[in-house]
Every structure is written in C-alpha cells, then in structure tokens.
Design goal:
MFE-2_N; MaoC/PaaZ C-terminal domain-containing protein
C-alpha cells in the first residue's frame, strides 16, 4: 500500500542542515522574475551582490537549493510515483527577516494525511533555526497525490478564505518567461514535470508546467512590490493553495485586497479564461 497513515502521521523526517549565500538569494529572486526593471533601485534591492533583501518565500527552496537530482516522494508510510504528485498548498511564517547569508537547520514531521477519495493529501510541518538555535521560520506544506486516496481516512478540513465582495484595491499583470521553469529549477527543484515534455505528457499535461512554488514566489513579490513599496521585511507570513497550473510564458493577473494586518490575494491566467493559479492567498504583515 503506497500510503499507511498509521505509520506516516507523526513521523519525523531526517533533519536538514544547510548554508546559503547572497548568490543563492540572487539566483532565487531571478528564478521568480526579479530584475525585470533593471534601472529601478527598489527592484535592485533583491539582487544586491552583498546584502540582497530576502523574500520570505526563499524559505521554501533554501534547504535544497543545491540539489541536482529529481526529488522522491518517499517518507515513512508513504511511497508515491513522482508523476502523480503536485504541490497542494504552502505556508511560511518568518520570525525575523531572513539574512542574506547564513546557516540553518530544519526539522520536519508529517502532520496529517487526508483521504480525498480519488487522491491523498500529505501535510508536512517544519521548523528552521539558525546556527545558534534561534527560530528563523516555520512552514507548512501539502502535496496532492492523484490516485492515492480511498484508504478510508478522514477527508480533512476546508481552509478556504473568502474574498471581499468588492473590487480589489490593486490589480497587476505579471508576465512569466518561456524559460521560467528552466531557470527556476536551478533553485533545486529538478522534477522533470517542469522541464521534460515527455514526462509532462505522461503525467497528463500538454507541456511542462511552471513550479507551483515559482508561482507562489512570483505572486508574493508582486504583492510586496505593489503594496509594500518592495520592502520584504514587512511580510510576516504568506500562504496559498495551488488552484491550477501555469505554463511558462503565461501572464498572471494578481488581484489584491487590503485589510487590517493582511492582504488577501488571488492569481489567475487571463489567457485561459482567468483559470485560477493560486487561491486562498493570505499575506500577513509584520
């Protein structure tokens, strides 16, 4: 049986210890589209050679940014074919601004396994500290495994976030590059779903798709640039559900509503009848 909830839930994964440099931060920011306004001083803050500001979404890649092999979905109680897996949701809470260079240690456990009928959702929670043991960020993520449900588990709660019944305060169009996935995969996610047309076809897609976490970062940056004067330190937390695919080269429509202490956000693809990309997006302010 590919999923055994009795073994999986509560299981701790091997701790990860890692370091990063300003160059790693620059690479990540380029991977989510930074630098498109190369004469704008605010834009160049993401790409400074010595002390670039760091978007909180960098936390999602830093532990594996130097990986060169495709990931495996192999955890205690969980063995799933990579072609069946897509990212379900992602949340990051930062406890201090992420430094431009540093050392981290991440501990992760499988928190929940939900049975959605035709699919399974596996939720992981992680805590990252710096070299002195001080908290840097916590994260919660889920993966959606097609064809792996039906094992008799609980369906799980709804975490939907309703949007205000009014026009958004901001709308911004954000183009992606045709080679965006090929660039972003240099941040450590070498899943062939994002680079190999044959693999993508076997997984049911007409072409390689953009990494969900790339879209996640692109939309976070758009909100920071549009509402927060490009100041990444003003973000305390950021979460989203991956609601649909984005193909490299497509333009995203990002809609933002301002509320006390937070931003509510949606992202869609206008060229495909506003097909949703991210939903239930909440950016909490520091």
């Amino acid at each position: 049986m590919p999923i055994d909830p009795g073994v999986a839930i509560g299981a701790e994964l091997p701790a990860q210890e890692f370091t990063w440099t300003a160059s790693d931060v620059q690479l990540y920011h380029l991977g989510i589209g930074a630098g498109s306004r190369p004469l704008d001083p605010r834009e160049l803050r993401y790409l400074d050679d010595v002390a670039p500001q760091v978007l909180p979404t960098f936390a999602t890649v830093v532990a594996n940014i130097h990986a060169t092999e495709a990931p495996k979905v192999s955890f205690p109680g969980v063995e799933i074919d990579l072609a069946k897996v897509v990212h379900g949701s992602q949340e990051v809470t930062v406890h201090q601004p992420i430094p431009a260079a540093g050392t981290g240690r991440t501990t992760t456990r499988i928190a929940e396994v939900w049975d959605k009928g035709k699919a399974a959702v596996i939720v992981q929670e992680s805590v990252t500290t710096d070299g002195d043991g001080n908290p840097l960020w916590t994260a919660r993520s889920s993966i959606f495994a097609r064809g792996e449900g039906g094992f008799g588990g609980e369906r799980g709660p709804s975490e939907s976030v309703p949007l205000p019944e009014r026009a958004p305060d901001h709308e911004v169009e954000v183009p992606t590059l045709p080679q965006q996935a090929l660039l972003y995969r240099m941040c450590g996610d070498r899943n062939p779903l994002h680079s190999d047309p044959d693999f993508a076809g076997g997984a049911g897609f007409p072409a390689p798709i953009l990494h969900g976490l790339c879209t996640y970062g692109v939309v976070c940056k758009a909100a920071v640039d549009t509402v927060l004067e490009s100041d990444a330190s003003r973000v305390h937390g950021y979460r989203a559900r991956f609601a649909g695919v984005v193909y490299p080269g497509e333009t995203l429509l990002v809609r933002i509503w301002e509320e006390p202490g937070r931003l509510l956000i949606s992202a869609s693809v206008p060229a495909r009848e506003n097909s949703p990309a991210l939903a239930d997006v909440v950016l909490t302010l520091a």
